[in-house]
Amino acid sequence: MKCLIFILVLLAGFINAPPVIAEDLTVSRAVLEDKTGTLSIDDVTEREFLPTGSKLSKGFTTSVHWLRLQVRAPTKGSEVVLFIRQPFLNEIRLYESVASDPPSWKSRVTGNYYPYEERDRNQQTLSFVVNVTAPETTFYLRLKTRGASLLSVEALTPEEAERSDHQLDLLAVFFVTAMLFLLLWAINSYWLDRQLVVALFAIHQAVYTLYGLAITGYLAPWLPSGFPQLADLSTTVLYCAVNFTTLLFCRELFKPYQPAPLMLRGLNLFLLAFPLQLAAMLLGYTPFAVILNALLLRFTWWYFVIMTFTLRKEQLPSRRMLQIFFVAITLFFTIFWFVSSTSTNMDNKLLGRQVLVVNGILIGGIFAMILNSRSRRLLLEAQQSALESEAKSEFLALVSHEIRTPLNALVGFSALARKTTDPAQKDEYHAILEQSSRSLMELVNGILDMSKIEAGRMEFETVPFNLRQLLDNLEEQYQPLANQKTLKFQLSITDNVPVWVLGDSIRLRQILANLLSNAIKFTNNGEVSCRVSVPGQTDDGGPSLVRFEVKDTGIGIPDDKRDLLFQPFQQLDPTISRKFGGTGLGLAIARNLLAMMEGSLTLTSCEQVGSCFVVELPLPETEALPETQNTVTALPAIGTVLVVEDNEFNRRLLGDILTSWSQQVVLAMDGHQALQFMEQQHFDLVLLDIRMPGIDGIEVSQRIRQREIEGAQTPVTIIAITADIDITTRKLCLAAGINAVLAKPVIPDQLARTIAEHCEGTMAVPPTAELQLNTRTCHDLRNNAERSRQYRKLLMADINEELKCLQAAMEREARDELGQAAHTLKGLCGHLADQEPAELAGWLQLNAPSAPNERLRLVIEQLQSRLSQENNS
């Protein structure tokens, strides 16, 4: 911008330089119009003619004029230079008053006479050197023009003429050089970028440069001398081509900004004018082409201004900057056109060839600035793309490592589990397989979550949930991990934190689990804490913000890498993934999830001291649910279940799970077979895959519902099981009559709960096996089978004792003792692989002070029933 301002100031200085003034020479002139071109020198010897003023012609019709010049003799010498400034004259002849002289004209350079056909065409100003010996001499100029022209004729001494001509030549050289520099810049930019818009700018600049050379006279010497009209014709063609190439360039320039389609179609219509202009010139109607181009020039620039205000997409340079550029150029042109068409006495040097060249420099300079900004944007995007590509390559390497690690365990221990005959060792292998599969599932879920966030397809639900129970579960999950590293783990909840809140418990658990996992992972000594509080009511009276502060005394985060921490596929250092594991997605997902939930995630950290992640999330308080959803494990009464799944292993898995629950199962491998089975017998439940060859699950459900309507049948419960559970698929499933949607991989507990929610008549789920110790406890016991059996026996004895204390406290209605017994029982049950008893005990601990007696007794009975199955086994 500074360079452009400097150029404009410099140009203004050249244009407004003091003109050369002839002090002692006087020219009196008069003009006689001759539209037929037949008036000769003999006809103007008398002083009877029609003066028309300094404007020679009105409009764009070709006309011929005679100008009589009466020049007084100079005080020194006899040579006088008749200096004419006029860019739009097509033919000029000079005649002296002596009738006997042959019709000819004089060159300003040599003073020699030449025939008209050989006139000097390469001069931007026409100067005739004449000898004035008498006190006053008369000369005649024959002028031919097609445009409305202002004429300026000065009588100068040779020295004054040389200075004036040198000044104008210097201006022309400067202007044309500037245009050539812009052309070279455009060619170089295209050579580097190979962008279409840059190529069109280079073409536009080449055409405007040629036009500048033509109107300043530098192009004429390069044209064939045998065609005296070629210079005039080439100037007209270039004049029309400038507007055509401007339209081409601006159309391509506006495309990335997504202008209104109607405005683009308007530009295409304007482009058709150039072929019409060429046809008119070839047919001899050059004035028509000039008139049409003049009208287009005046209209298209305002059209560009309007178009900049219809751009719908932001780019670099910004839409606001484009609007300023085009408004400035258009106002400049409008003022120039208005002044040039209305002024009759202004000094013609302001309205000549130089102003047209200045227009070209101004347009080219602004277009170059726009393209330069665009090139910087493309360069930044390329650099960003390179960084993202590098990050994704590193991410793929990390993912490959993180995927292969659990896969290696799955492949290896599954082979060992098939070969071993030791039950204890087989159970140990199965526990490792389960843990590896869950790790693999968590990794895949993280990648899918990030893709959903980037695509704007992440789903959230707002349901009541027990916040304190969620926090207790997290404590039970991460306390053992902290103990393994001899870290102190502390969870503190202030009294004003509500128990039941509205929100998305799954996403909140995902966020906090990620923060706690990272805190433990990157802390080698010291402590990890999670403090939950409610800082106060929001300013607008909305729901209170719940603040979660996760602190650690780990490695800390450098100040210059904190922003990098929240970018996807990024880690602070490549060695971190090798040392600690992970893909670098967790914090990016957490921050994006919180932003979508109208929350925030902030960080304060000191390197080698520790970090503190603060989550603030609006969670409105709500009433407790009448039923505890997490403790429901029931199935419909024994019936017939149709499993529709095209994958053989998934089909067998679902069949075996349902068979172990004493359900009668029929397996169908595709939609056609499922519909055939539905016609042959009645089913109480249909488990349906969505994406299948032939008839997909959506169509199968629609046909089932249609058949039920036509036959007035009782609707069967349909549960979809699919790997694609985005919001669009879920809506399609519900619209097709499907009752519920489950995500793959299938977890038996989730399947049982979903069936219990949507099927009538329930029965307790038969235990698939005796309760086992969880993986962490087995690991603490060094995976020793005998020690595990002994510990399990002692654990169950302690659990039975606490159950008795729990029951006794309930009979006495001693709520404090009940809560204490539930707390102890929750800790004991936390060592079991089945988390249902611990969840029931946790509910009792939280609700012992306020829950109705009937509700407490029901939960205690459920807990005793679940644990009595273990004792019986």
TrEMBL record:
It is an enzyme of class 2 (transferase). GO terms for cellular component: plasma membrane. The modification 4-aspartylphosphate is found at D689. The keyword DNA-binding does not apply. CDD domains: HATPase_EvgS-ArcB-TorS-like, HisKA, REC_hyHK_CKI1_RcsC-like. Keywords: ATP-binding, Cell membrane, Kinase, Membrane, Nucleotide-binding, Phosphoprotein, Signal, Transferase, Transmembrane, Transmembrane helix, Two-component regulatory system. The modification Phosphohistidine is found at H823. It comes from Desulfuromusa kysingii. Residues 640-759 form the Response regulatory domain. It catalyses: ATP + protein L-histidine = ADP + protein N-phospho-L-histidine. Residues 1-22 form the signal peptide. It is a multi-pass membrane protein. The chain crosses the membrane at residues 170-191, 198-221, 262-282, 288-309, 321-339, 351-371. It is found in: Cell membrane. One of its GO terms (molecular function) is phosphorelay sensor kinase activity. Residues 398-621 form the Histidine kinase domain. This is histidine kinase. SMART domains: HATPase_c, HisKA, REC. Its EC number is 2.7.13.3. Residues 784-873 form the HPt domain.
